[in-house]
Design goal:
Layout lengths: L7 E4 L8 E4 L5 H45 L1 H61 L11 H12 L17
Antiparallel strand pairs: 1-2
């Protein structure tokens, strides 16, 4: 239950040596009150739980009298539900689990192969790109027109568009 506690008093000696600890014979009153209160709460909880379970059993006893006839009347519905549950839930679940267990090694092998292939493909691309830049140095982009001409063209593009003249077309009727 609870462990015994003791209060320790330290007495000073007149000779100047170290104080000596002595244990008091009686614990303080608060410890005794807490111990009694704890036992009282535990005892009351025990009686309350026993009383509530007994009351619930007496209240549910009429339901137990109806239990067997109710099961007898609902037997066709229960059997149909069990068959449908077995057919629509448990059987597909067991098939999926079996297939997943058998296909898992293949899935891991193909997944690892795809990851390795992607890594080696990326590595080959980087090597090919670095070799291309090492052999053929990249050239800076060259402009065929001077910058002033480019800016004039840009200014012309931003201006209002020209209107086109329509061609006159004559349509002759054949007889």
């Amino acid at each position: 239950m609870s462990s015994p506690t003791a209060t320790v008093y330290i007495h000073a000696t007149p000779s100047g040596s170290l104080p000596v600890a002595s244990a008091a014979a009686t614990p303080p009153p608060i410890v005794e009150i807490a111990r009694v209160a704890g036992h009282g709460i535990a005892l009351s909880f025990s009686y309350l739980s026993r009383g509530s379970t007994t009351a619930i059993r007496y209240l549910l006893s009429p339901v137990s009298l109806l239990y067997n006839p109710l099961l007898y009347l609902l037997a066709p519905v229960i059997v149909l539900a069990q068959v449908l549950l077995d057919l629509l839930v448990f059987t597909p679940y067991s098939v999926i689990i079996t297939v997943a267990r058998n296909v898992y090694p293949i899935y891991v092998f193909v997944g690892a192969a795809c990851i390795c292939a992607a890594f080696f493909g990326f590595l080959a691309r980087m090597v090919a790109t670095s070799l291309t830049y090492a052999i053929f140095a990249p050239r800076p982009p060259t402009s065929t027109q001077p910058p002033e001409a480019v800016s004039e063209k840009a200014a012309m593009r931003s201006a209002a568009p020209k209107t086109r003249l329509r061609k006159r077309v004559s349509i002759k009727e054949e007889r």
